[in-house]
Each structure stands twice: as structure tokens, then as C-alpha cells.
Amino acid sequence: MENLLDKIVSFAKRRGFIFPSSEIYGGLANTYDYGPLGVELKNSIKNIWWKKFVQQRDDMVGIDAALIMNTEVWKASGHLKEFYDSLLQCKKCNSIFREDEISGLPIDPSSPSKIEEIKNFLKDLTCPNSKCNQKGNFTLPTLFNLMFETNLGPVKNEKSKVYFRPETAQAMFVDFKQVLDTNPRLRLPFGIAQIGKAFRNEITPGNFIFRTREFEQMEIEYFVKEEEWGKWFEYWRKEMWDWIINGLGLDKNHIHELEVPDSERAHYSKRTIDFEYDFPFGRKELYGLAYRGDFDLKNHYKKAPYKDPDSGEEFYFHVIEPTWGVDRSFLAILCDSYREEKERVVLKLKPHLAPYKAAIFPLLANKPELLKLARKIYDDLRQNFMVAFDDRGNIGKRYYSQDEIGTPYCITVDFESLEKDDVTIRDRDTMLQERVKIKDLIKILEKKLNS
Questions:
Q1: 159: left (phi over 0), alpha (psi -120 to 50) or beta
Q2: Cα separation of 326 and 49, whole Å?
Q3: How many CA atoms lie within 13 A of 123 on its CB side?
Q4: Whole-prediction pTM value?
Q5: What is the C-alpha separation between 97 and 123, in angstroms, rounded?
Q6: Measuring CA to CA, how many Å separate 39 from each of 62, 123, 248, 386, 423?
């Protein structure tokens, strides 16, 4: 679909999914707020993920850690030394580009042996900014630390310097021993899960909510024996595919695996697979699956933090890390679900993801008896589901309004409802209607949403 991203951005603002942040003050570049419908969809993603990977498993526990941690954490993890991007700038238009955005740029710009090669390359490089197109007018690449720095306490000096976490993973390693001590039932293999914000001072954020400086992750650190890492890597690979297809309902033809080569992997990774999605702006990373070895636990713990209760053996676990981006999940869902049909726009979300699971309409708003019954049904249903109530205008327009925001079922109270204690349920995708008893509505909706 042409200009799909532009349509998604406009739709998301118009219908209350995502707003530009601080807009009444001119906004703040690449920051966004999730509106009333957006927060419901986002919560659905997170709640379903937590239910699947934590609540319904015996081998998983969760934590919710602080956004700011002791700076020693980031020294031990390697982030203070390794967490850099290389950037270069066009002297003509002042546009800044990451190294990976410049095709053919010689890697490792910090190596003296590469400087002359890089200079020769830059002489023939045309600025990727279409409004500039200046040739051979670039700075040499420089390294840029991606962590957000701030100060803790009233005095600003080197000792007060701290960082907002650039990932959620490290807290799960730092809290590892405390989690074990307070959960003696845990046996190998097991995992620690967390949903939370992370912050990266990205050089070139963009493409709506795809790349922002503040984002949310759903992440698991799964602890295994070294000799079994390959088996569990494949296990989590399948689990991630199941989440993509059955959890989010994404078209599997839009998803592609990329084996990340050694030169492009994070400093801690021994193997990484990226799950890429066909976004309107190109094929880009959606999720990642990494084998981190025992890098993290050995850096944080001088002594092996685990003693097998049966054998007495002490050892460091190896770690499989599946990571899901909440915001990128949200964007992929919108792109995959947005449809323009002849007379309507419809968001074909999986029903369990929809912001509102159902909408309740009185056929006519000026009939007190219909309004009263519709309100009672609404009050009963919202004890169990997020539902909407709408008594404005033409019933057909109300249907199409709910179709556009992805509400899977619309329940209409009409004059027959007063006599027979039943209502019509309209399906968003087929637009077919059926009559059901009011007393059965909760069970019917539960069955439809769980199917």
C-alpha cells in the first residue's frame, strides 16, 4: 500500500493511539505519547506476553528493576567501554549518519591502518540527504556513547554521574543471586523475565516509533548449562515464532530470520538471530535472540553464584536471551492490521489484542428503555472486559467507527431485546450478525476472545 507509514501515523493520532509528545509546546523530536486506545493495545501486548511466558510457566519468574543503576554495573557489563556507535557528518547540510547507514564504509574507524582507506572512501561519498547531494564533504567517523547520562543528588560532579539503563538485561543478572535465594524451587533451566523502559541516545532516531530514544522491552534471560545452549537456543527460536504468529497474529510471510555475522554482533553475544519485519520503510529488526554465554554472570560475580542442590557443583550459567520490543511490536501490528476497504477503514487486530473487546450500542439514543438496558449490559461486561459505549448518531456510522479502531464485536440493543432478552452481535471482519441471549454474553465473548 502506498504511503502506508504516513497513513498509519495520521490514523494513530486521529484515533487516539499515538500522539506527538509535548505537542502544544512545539513537540520534542522523536518522542511520542500513547493515547487512550494506544495504551490499551500496548497493555494487551504486554499482558498477553506476561501470561504466556511467566504466568503459565513453572520455570520463569519476573522482576521490575530500577531505571538507574550503580555505574559499576555498566563498567562490569562492558557498556561504558563498548556501547558506542560510529557517526559521521556532512559538512554541507550538517546531517549526521550512523556508520551502518553508509554502504561500503570501511569498518573499525578507530584502527589507524584504516584512516587513509576511510579518507579515500569519503572523497567519493555523496551525501545520502536528497536535499544536499554534496560529494566528498564529510567529517571522519567518530565514536558516540549511546547511554543517557544524568546526575544523582544535588551536587553535579564525577562521583554523582549515573546512567539511565540502555537495556533491561543487566538488572536480571545483578539480581540473579537474590532471585535464586528467594525462590529455592527454581532448578535448571529457568528464566528471569522483565518488561520495562530502556534509554539510548540514538544518533538518528526515526520512522515513527520504530527507533526512539525511550523505548520498552519485554525480555528474558534464560539460564542453562553450557553444553545445552544449542538445544535451548532452538527452543526459544520456536517460542518466538509462536508469539509472532499466534500471539500477535502477524503474517509469517512478513517475517524473516537474519543470522547476524560476528562483526555485527553485540560485544557479549556468541550467536544472534534477528527476526526482521517488512515495515513500510524496509526490512528491519523486530526482535532478537542471542546466546550471551557466561559473559554477564562472570563479570558481575567473582565467585560462581549457583550451587547445585543435588551434586554440590558450583558453576556459572550460560544465558539464552530472547528480546521483544514493545513499541516495534505495536508498529508491526498496526502495519499488518490496517486495511482500506470500499466503504470503511478497518483495523483487523487479533480480538484478544483489541483496545476494546466489544462496543455496546442502543439502537436509538432517545428511547430511555433501550438506553437503560444498553447501559446495564455495558456495566456488566466491563467488569470482565475493556468495552466501549456509544449512542451517537447513525448505527452504521457507529459500526464503522469501531471497525476503524479494531473492536472485534459490536453489540446492539434494539426493541426486540426488550421483549426477548437478547441482542445482536456483529463481527468486525465478516460484518455478519447473530442474536444471542443477554445472559450468555460474557461466556460468548470469552469463548470468541480465547479462540
A1: alpha
A2: 10
A3: 6
A4: 0.89
A5: 16
A6: 22, 48, 16, 12, 29
Which residue has 564504509 as its cell numbers? 105
245: closest CA among 279, 277, 288? 277
Q: Where are the alpha helices (DSSP H) in 315-367?
A: 326-337
User: Beta strand 409-413 with 358-362: parallel, antiparallel or unpaired?
Assistant: parallel
The alpha carbon torsion through 36, 355, 207, 6 (nearest 10 deg) reads -90
Contacts for 81 with CB less than 8 Å, ≥ 6 apart = 75
Indicate if the alpha-carbon torsion angle 242, 245, 249, 254 is positive or negative: positive
Number of other CB atoms surrounding residue 286 within 10 Å: 25
Query: What's phi and psi for 431, nearest 5 deg?
Result: 65, 15
Tell me, what amino acid is at 212? T
Main-chain dihedrals φ then ψ at residue 129, nearest 5 degrees: -70, 115
Whether the CB-CB separation of 200 and 216 falls below 8 Å is answered with no
Task: Pick the closest to residue 347 from 356, 434, 396, 61 (CA basis).
Answer: 356
- pLDDT tens by residue, the chain, 451 residues: 559 999 999 999 999 999 999 999 999 989 999 999 999 999 999 999 999 999 999 999 999 999 999 999 999 998 988 887 788 899 989 888 887 788 777 655 555 567 788 888 888 889 988 889 888 889 888 888 889 999 999 989 888 999 999 999 999 999 999 999 999 888 889 999 999 999 999 877 889 999 999 999 999 999 999 999 999 999 999 999 999 999 999 999 999 999 999 888 887 889 999 999 999 999 999 999 999 999 999 999 999 888 887 888 888 999 999 999 999 999 999 999 999 998 999 999 999 999 999 999 999 988 999 999 999 999 999 999 999 999 998 999 999 999 999 999 999 999 999 999 999 999 999 999 999 999 999 999 999 998 7
Tell me the domains of the chain and their CATH numbers: 4-71+166-337 (3.30.930.10), 84-145 (no CATH), 346-450 (3.40.50.800)
- Which three-class secondary structure state does DSSP give residue 298? helix
> And the C-alpha cell for 389?
459505549
The secondary element (H helix, E strand) that includes residue 297 is helix 295-300
Instruction: Copy the grid coordinates of residue 104.
Output: 561500503
> Would you call the peptide bond into 189 cis, given omega within 30 degrees of 0 as the criterion?
yes
Cβ-contact 163, 71 below 8 angstroms: yes
In this structure, are residues 254 and 336 in contact, taking their beta carbons and an 8 Å threshold? yes
